[in-house]
Amino acid sequence: MFFKSKKTTAVTDEADVAASFMSVIDRTQATIQFEPDGTILTANENFLKAVGYSLSEIAGRNHSMFVDRGFVQSDEYRRFWQDLANGKSFTDQFPRVRKDGSVIWIQATYAPYLDAEGKVRKVIKIASDITDRQRGIEGIAEGLRELSSGNLMHRVPSCNAPDIDALGNAFNGAVEQLSVSISAVKEVSSAVERTATEVGQSSADLSHRTESQAATLEQTAAAIEELTSTVRAAADGAREVEVSANDAKSTAENGGKVVGDAIDAMSRIEKSSSQIAQIISVIDDIAFQTNLLALNAGVEAARAGDAGRGFAVVASEVRALAGRAAEAAREINTLIEESSKHVKTGVGLVGLAGDELQKIIQGVAGIHANISEISRGAAEQAITLNEINSGVSHLDSMTQQNAAMVEQSTAASQVLANDAGELARQVALFRTPSDSGAHFGHGPGVATHHAPHRRAS
């Protein structure tokens, strides 16, 4: 019977664990081993299947056969293998070229294998194929680039990686909803732009008409102001004429009274003339009787002779005086008769003048009444025109304010139209399925460009 030491047993157990671990890795991961300079030593079936080669096709060749030709010549690639040869490890995502020229993506760890002395004997790479996942990520990245350029018709293709596919579906749903919203915004912005343009045109037309109306109203206000001044002056003139007519009426009435007084005076003169004529007739009778008495006295004086001579002289003188008195009475009577005729004529004329003056008084009274009516009418017209003038002035002020408001509205509508136009231009940057000839687009399944640090190894 043989006995094993505890140390030998421990080493055996560790070897078994290591063998089991490598077996698990070999079954689940793609592995490949290299010399420190990148020469291929061996690879498992998972790796060979992933790149499409057989082991005999890659053994002895360099790692660079799986790398883009342009990157192989770079300093970064050379430093990568120098660092591995010096014992440094790398874990990252890398693009690799398959036998058919297509590109696969792997999540890999490059780890140097050290001997007992700590020297690098070989490099082991453990990798897993993440091409589907990377394609899904690249699809989403392409979708984001299209979205940033305003393309809302691009859709992310489906992916075999469930979590990435769910992210792509969420992206497509968000873009779809955004597309609907942007389409609605396009329609609204176009409608707003059209409406704002129409409002601007209407406001401009209204502004022009309001300015024209304001100018016309201003002219009308000036004309009404001038007419008001004219009517006010006419009313003042009518009041002055009314005062003058009233004075003329008073003067005519006073004249009528004077004519009446003159007629009364003429009547009294006529009556006095009649009385004087009667007195003259009495005087004439007295003269006639005196003459008769003188004649009788003369006769008696003659009979008396010398004794009556002196009495005869007196009688003769009395007779002569009576004759002169009779002659004067006749002349006075003649004058009085002529004066009476003239007085009668004057009374008639004064009466006619009084009648005409009464007619004049009545006419002046009528004129005064008419002028008073005209004066009242002119005053009322002046008041009415003054009120109209005030109303037109207020309307002119309101029209000026309306013109200013219309001008502000026109400016605001122009700003709105410009803003709506700018909004339409900004929204037009987005391409939606509702645009003419639009169709959904999908990016390429595998990206052909990658960041340089992702191309190392």
UniProtKB/TrEMBL annotation:
One of its GO terms (cellular component) is membrane. Residues 90-142 form the PAC domain. PROSITE patterns: CHEMOTAXIS_TRANSDUC_2 (PS50111), HAMP (PS50885), PAC (PS50113), PAS (PS50112). Its main location: membrane. Residues 131-183 form the HAMP domain. The keyword Transferase does not apply. One of its GO terms (molecular function) is transmembrane signaling receptor activity. The keyword Transmembrane does not apply. Keywords: Chemotaxis, Transducer. It is found in: Membrane. Residues 35-62 form the PAS domain. SMART domains: MA, PAC. GO terms for biological process: chemotaxis; signal transduction. Residues 436-457 are annotated as: Disordered. NCBIfam families: sensory_box. PANTHER family: METHYL-ACCEPTING CHEMOTAXIS PROTEIN 3, PROTEIN ICFG. Belongs to the methyl-accepting chemotaxis (MCP) protein family. This is Methyl-accepting chemotaxis sensory transducer with Pas/Pac sensor.
